[in-house]
Amino acid sequence: MAPKTTNTTMSLSTRPAGRGAKLFHWEFREERPDHARDLAASLRISPAVARVLANRGHGESATGVDNFVNPSLSALHDPMVLSGMSEGLDRVVKAIENREKITIYGDYDTDGATSTALMLKVFHFLNVPVNYYIPHRVDEGYGLNVAAIDGLAEAGTRVLISVDCGITAVAQVAHAQARGVDVIVTDHHQPGEELPTAVAVINPNRRDCAYPNKHLTGVGVAFKFCHALLKRLRVPKDKAQPLLRSLLDLVAIGTIADVAPLSGENRILVKHGLAQMLRTTNPGILGLLRMLEMEGVRITTKKIGFQVAPRLNAAGRTDHARICVESLTADDEQLAFQIAARLDQYNRDRRAVETRIFEQTLQFIAEQVDLDRERVIVVSGRDWHVGVIGIVASRIMEVYDRPVIIISEHDGGAKGSARSIKGFNIHDALNACSDHLVTFGGHPFAAGLQLLPERIKPFRDALNDYARERLSEEALIPSLTIDTLVEPQEVDAGFIKDLEMLEPFGPSNPSPLFAMRGLRLAEQPRVVGVGGRHLKLSLSSEGRYFSAIGFGMGEHASQLAGKGNVRLDAAFVPMLNDYYSEGRVEMELKDLKLSADA
User: What pTM, to 2 d.p., does this model score?
Assistant: First the structure.
């Protein structure tokens, strides 16, 4: 349901480096009160949660709401609808029958690691020996490469199955064929103008593919391939179904880590995958959960995205992603826990490197970027770790609310990572400026690129010329989509419990955002956290008191000090702090502004 936009409001937020007050569009979804009342009555849920369902367009029918709240695995699409699936299965079956050597070739991120682990587990179940190969991020770069193919061919590989990569590897696949290696590409990234001449190319984003879900991740495509393979080999349902269900934890981790839309089929896979994590028998996942003190607790997309996935990603960024596959396919729980501890250390190392580059990037922007003229921020540095520049790009984008490209210059070349905002397709932008690039690839919101150092400045100029024609100043103002206004008495523990039925949250199904008006400060604001970065408030209205925290909003404290009579409107995500026996509802603040009648 499209949101109804209010006027742009001046919030109390401030940006770093003297950027001044931060503007937000507060957009309110269109209210559908009749549907909301019907849902509240039929589902016996909080009226506020019913409004969220109705305002998001889930209130048309009881069946539609039930399909959303309780998505069934029976609603998954037939994997055979994927173009190339039949040809891929034929070649794998032939390889199994002839005992040819099969190698799984994965990517070094979490999606690639979970895809590789999933494939390995299925072939192990089938008692078919297979090898795997993960390229080194720094030494080899993304995707298939000729040197790796040569090594695999010399070691006897005759069938190579790519996972989460390969769709643009036209030359590399041709080289593999010349070396006597048949390639089956399973991928989800956007294809180029030419598809690889592989035995099979399985990708829902092929132009000739009728598969309904264009947002499958690499692990999603791998899961579909394995599902189809079990059917082709006539594995009995009473054996195949438990195996596939046991693999949904891997599917959930990879899908969440790749920030895929959590609607439709992806919602089904992730919802059931998170449930599977509560009963998982995968020693690698158990080791991670134990190390993170998450054993036996309800797993959410937020916990995966902010705790599990960064540790799996960190290995590929700072060392080698093979260790992630070793973890996720380990048979021994003690070994898995030891690997989890190593992954945690890699994550600590990654954060230290990331912080240094982030600070250097902020300095570069302050000294060398004209933010009034440049709609896309392009920053370059010498010998920056290519494994973390994507994370830095995301952080800088959150600060400055515009597309960002971070480039690392090294040994006469340069590699970059791009992140973009809604309304600006960074993949199209790179394509428009491709004369300056050696290579590029990715999605509308994220991409990677390579270029020569001497082309960085002309590329930066060309990209901003392109952006000025397509990216207005208004588009650079971030928006908050408010699901509904709530009254103080509506926000209680039952309301929080009812919100759980909307999970899992992520792109296409974000955590519900609420607004409450006319709040007063119940005590003086405080700053908490290292460097006083976070704002801690006690807010009151109509006799109710709410503890509120605004991450990264510490500068509000000085603005609010001594203003106890001021009335505030808050945009927030509700949380339940179960430290207290009765549980207390708290607010995670996203924005604050002065009430209109303050």
Answer: 0.88
